[in-house]
Here is the input.
Amino acid sequence: MSKLKTAVITAARAPQLSADSEAALHLFRVLFKANRVLEQHSLRSTETLSICPSDFYILEALLHKGPMPMGVIAGKVLLTLGSLSVAVDRLEDKGLVVRHADVHDKRTKLIHLTKSGEKLVSAHFKGHAEALTAAMSGLNTQELKKAAQLIKKLGLAAADQLRT
Here is the structure.
């Protein structure tokens, strides 16, 4: 009887990285996973609405910041201008927002909440905030503020590198 040879497949060894690179890759993975889980909490908190999550985020931005031009909203809710235009059309068709010319620059259209839009987002915002607060309850208020400060610093530095 012949002996069966068992081949052992071993994973290729990853190249040695600096401590900075190891830490950066670890942080990337941690942020990526945390973002996905938190996004699920956010989606769950808006699923009972008659609008999609990105539409809710647009209404939320308008509720907190007031009327804004499309380019500003796009930056706040992380949508392209094309996607935002389609979303604003959808919200306008539902009577939740209106476009008005900017009194200072007639070429610019400002997006405003309607009374219906304000009522919808106001009614659901507190529950949304509570859901995200509960999702992040693993950190105390001080830790949340520090995490936000550090992640913002990281994001701004990374964005600067993309511009160069």
Observations:
- Residues 49-163 form a domain with the Arc Repressor Mutant, subunit A fold (CATH 1.10.10.10).
- The longest strand covers residues 97-101.
